[in-house]
Amino acid sequence: MIAALLSAGHDAVTIDCAALSDRDEDRTYLRSITEQARISARLGAQDARPKAVVFDNATEMPAFAQVEVKRLLDHLEEEDGTGHGALVLITTARSPIREAVAAGTFRDDLYYRLSGVRLTLPPLRAREHPAKLASGLANTLAGHDVDLTDAASAAIAAYDWPGNLRELQNTLRQALLQGQGGRISELDLALAQPSFAAPRAPKPGAAFDEETMILDALQSARWNVSKAARHLGIGRATIHRKMNIYGISRPS
Description:
Blueprint: H1 2-7, E1 12-16, H2 24-43, E2 52-56, H3 63-78, E3 88-91, H4 97-102, H5 108-114, H6 130-142, E4 147-148, H7 150-158, H8 164-178, E5 183-184, H9 186-192, H10 210-220, H11 225-232, H12 236-246
Helix pairs in contact: 2-3, 6-7, 6-8, 7-9, 8-9, 10-11, 11-12
């Protein structure tokens, strides 16, 4: 959806909510973004400021940021009819935001204001043809057609991808740099991602097993928390908190 908006001419700015903390610099940064958004909405097509604001990891949005976003939405509603339709607000999350609402960490009034069109994307390991997705992504990254060998396609299909699309993108980018550029073999993938371990079975009845995802990311990163956090697209503080919740600790 974000890619479609950008291809339709929307310039975007992305805010990683997991990286925000209740500090003066973060408050000032967010306030500057929302002020630009207000100006962009008011001026519409005449303005060169971002036309889309993406709030990534929205379930990690701190309370002060929720207040600021709610204030922005109130402003846009007051300015209805003056061009705010040119501004698009997008929230992304690894788990349903309604779960954060139920847990009391996300405002229910903000959730209902943001929940317009909702898209649920399955994790990469649940896709039926991950190698086809990898092929298209490799072509985009290289800027030309890239041949994935049968062995490389099989390795992609067998791997669990705990870091989801970000990990796949990083793996393909590294494979293109270290390989021939027009062809990706299993060896190229192995150079970028040393271990294609057999995927762990999810817990019975669980379509999205966060504990397994966290553990797999840590094991793939050889228990380097910073690397695992980058693969998952979350902050170090978040992954440490999840480890405490699930009782995950580095093996001695």
